[in-house]
Amino acid sequence: LNKPEWYLTQVLMWIGNHSKFLDDKIQPILDKAGSSVNAGLEFSRALVMLILEKLAADIPCLLYDDTLFCHLVDEVLLFERELYSVHGYLSSFPSCMHILSEESCFQRWLTVEKKFALQKMDSMLSSEAAWISQYKDITDVDEMKVPDCAETFMTLLLVITDRYKNLPAASRKLQFLGLQKELVDDFRIRLTQVMKEETRASLGFRYCAILNAVNYIATVLADWADNV
């Protein structure tokens, strides 16, 4: 259960190792018979069906172990990425995202994603470098004087989007978007709390850093507004 990468990698190796044989030997036979079947894709589809069976059997066993469950989701997302980008798998075919979209699994994924995002926010705001720009010495890069915590937070949101963007159902994507909105609001509250501590020094370093953070986040969210 703690090594899903073993069978996921094995399947990717089988697909890669058989592609030349399927293209050179099997596809011509199908073409000659007038079939529209793509040998390589059908081979991939059959192996993915085995993975779906394996996932369906494994997931109930690790649903309440955060570490194992997170590891499984991470490995499945890496597998999916390579399956589509390297092996040309079709989005209309069955995929692991269908398993991750099933109610009990999906709700667990959302819960765990939120838990780890909040932990990340705790650590980024308690860091000594939270209010310092990592580009502070490079003037042409650092026009907005973005504190490290704001940049890390927006990267966190971007990574979450990257993880859920290939979910097959729009309704599931919207639930993840709901999580992101919660995180933005949580971050806003945290910034407000820090700002209240700094009101006596409104021209102080940290107060200005908070304003820069808000400006940066608002600007990036506006840029993302075109992303359906």
Automatic annotation (TrEMBL):
GO terms for biological process: endoplasmic reticulum to Golgi vesicle-mediated transport; regulation of ER to Golgi vesicle-mediated transport; retrograde vesicle-mediated transport, Golgi to endoplasmic reticulum. GO terms for cellular component: Dsl1/NZR complex. InterPro entries: RINT1_Tip20. This is RINT1 protein. It comes from Oxylabes madagascariensis (white-throated Oxylabes).
